[in-house]
Structure formats: C-alpha cells, structure tokens
Design brief:
This protein starts with 6 loop residues before the first strand and ends with a helix. Helix 10 (225-231) packs antiparallel against helix 11 and helix 11 packs across helix 12. The chain folds into three domains: 7-53, Uridine Diphospho-n-acetylenolpyruvylglucosamine Reductase, domain 2 (2-Layer Sandwich); 58-173, Uridine Diphospho-n-acetylenolpyruvylglucosamine Reductase, domain 3 (2-Layer Sandwich), CATH 3.30.465; 178-283, Enolase-like, domain 1 (2-Layer Sandwich), CATH 3.30.390.50. The protein has 284 residues and is α+β, with helices and mostly antiparallel strands. The strands form four sheets. The chain has a five-stranded antiparallel β-sheet. It has a four-stranded antiparallel β-sheet with strand order 11-12-13-14. It has a three-stranded parallel β-sheet with strand order 1-3-2, with helices on one face. It has helices spanning 14-24, 37-42, 78-83, 85-90, 92-98, 104-109, 112-117, 124-131, 149-152, 225-231, 238-249, 262-283; strands spanning 7-9, 28-31, 50-53, 63-66, 69-73, 135-140, 143-148, 153-155, 158-159, 166-173, 178-185, 192-203, 206-215, 222-223. Helices cover 36% and strands 27% of the residues. Strand 6 and strand 7 (143-148) form a beta hairpin.
C-alpha cells in the first residue's frame, strides 16, 4: 500500500528537530532507520502528518570513547557499530549483538537510537543497553535529560520519551570481564524467540559482578537483578549457573505468538540464558 499524505521535514540539527516535534505535537513522527515506521505507514496503521527525518543531523552520528566511557550518537547505524574498530575492541559485546540483527541491508540503515527508542520488546539493543547499564540522553524543548535504560521501558512500545523529545545519545562505562549475546530465532533476519546478554567480571576464581538482560521474553526488555546476584560472590560452578538461570526465568513473562507457546519460549529461554552466562564466564 501507499502511505497517506504527509509533510516531510529534514532538520540539520537537534534543536530544529525538537522544534518541529513541539510545534506539530502527536501528528509528528521521527524517522531514524525507518524499518518499523515505514511499513506501519504503508499499511495505514500509523497516521503520520509530519515526518521528521534525522539523517542530516551530523552530531547524532558521532562515537566517542574517552576516560573509560563510551558515548554513541542515536543515528549511528548497526553497520557503523560493527565497522568501528575502537568500539569493537572496547565493547565487543556490542559488535557481537549488532551482527545478529536482521541482515546486512537492514544493518546499513537501522540505527542504535531507533532500535532503542521504538520500545519494541523484540529489538536487540534495549536489553543490551540494560545489560551495559547505559544512560540514554533525551533532548526536548527544555534541554537534555538523562534516563537509565533500566528505567526507560514502561510497556510494549511505551517508553519514558515524551512526544516532543528525541533519543540523542547512549552512554555507558567500558565494560570489564567476559561477555556473550545468545539469540535463538526461527530464521536469519528474524526477531529473537529469546535472547540474552551477559557480562561477567571475575576476580581470580570468584565472580565480582554479573549483569544479565533478556530480549523478547516480556512486554519490555528484562534486566534480572536476581540472576546477577545469584552469581556474584560465587565460583560460577554448575549449581551457581543453574541458580542464576532459575532466577532469570522467574523475571520473565512471555506470551504465545507465532514463535511458539509459552512453555516452548520458557524452555528456549532457559537454554539461551545458560549459554550466555556460561560463555561469558569462559571469556572472563
């Protein structure tokens, strides 16, 4: 189908983009990569009167790694995440996850900010940002404010971002220790049936810290505090890993859909979580 008529805006800076959103209210939508919005517009499931394309905003395409912190602009594409050698060396978990998103054609256009801001529980970056304990920078009429990724998601497609705000950046500490991103999907390019990101820091033979986050297993991404706590201070042996998996499974609430019934998703989740934790421990 063909989308209904809309007015196209292509601002050159964040201030101008926010101004358009403020002026047009809920009739305006932001276009980043467009993989979610454009199909919805073509199906007439999204009524967009004003489309605000962020492609010309250069400041949203920057990547900075300095003093132990990583800052990524919202319009950095998945391909740019994969292709940036410094970023791959500092945050290999990010590259590992980006390589599992859809296919090369999508990764050349899809952006980290769009993946995060859409609020789709099946997107990979939201859970990953929770695992990394990232802070999201949001720009609006009153300036910029910061929201923790772990506090950003309120429900499926519902986030803490207001209608007149943009996600402009992602910031997190350079992670330490071992990492893994495990994803089970029906076919190449599909969303995850279940996915898990894990960061494990070891001190000698003891786990100093652990962060576990899951994708597409509830109506929001899930960061499991209890799963990390089950590993912290332990030797991360078989029983400790089993306890962490049990704790993580207690935090999710999958629903039946075309990827399978709830029992199947719980089974897959248990396998994916165990694999992620085990591989992160090995790489630590």
């Amino acid at each position: 189908m063909i989308p209904s008529a809309f007015e196209y805006h292509r601002p050159a800076d964040v201030k101008s983009a926010v101004g358009i959103l403020q002026a047009q209210g809920d009739e305006a939508r932001v276009l980043a990569g467009g993989h979610s919005l454009i199909p919805m517009m073509k199906l007439r499931m999204a009524a967009v009167t004003h489309l605000v394309d962020l492609q010309d905003i250069a400041e949203l395409k920057a990547v900075s790694i300095a003093e132990g912190k990583v800052t990524i602009g919202a319009m950095v594409t998945q391909h740019m995440l994969i292709d940036n050698a410094r970023l791959a060396a500092s945050v290999p978990l990010l590259r590992e996850a980006a390589l599992q998103i859809a296919d090369p054609q999508v990764r050349y256009c899809g952006t980290i900010g769009g993946n995060i801001a859409n609020g789709d529980p099946a997107n990979d970056m939201p859970g990953l940002m929770q695992c990394l304990d990232a802070t999201l920078g949001l720009a609006g009429p009153n300036g910029t404010r910061n929201v923790k990724a772990r506090d950003f998601y309120e429900g499926a497609y519902v986030t803490a971002c207001e209608d007149d705000e943009l996600v402009v950046s992602v910031t997190f500490d350079v992670p330490k220790g071992g990492h893994a991103y495990e994803k089970q999907k029906r076919k190449i390019g599909d969303y995850a049936t279940a996915a898990c990101a894990a960061l494990i820091e070891m001190d000698g033979g003891t786990c100093r810290s652990a962060s576990i986050a899951m994708t597409n297993l509830s109506d929001t991404p899930i960061w499991s505090r209890s799963a990390g706590a089950a590993l912290t201070g332990t030797r991360c042996d078989t029983e400790d890993i089993a306890s962490a998996v049990t704790a993580a499974l207690a935090n999710i609430n999958p629903t039946e859909d075309n990827r399978g019934p709830v029992a199947f998703k719980m089974h897959v989740a248990g396998i994916v979580i165990k694999r992620a934790i085990t591989r992160a421990i090995a790489s630590a």
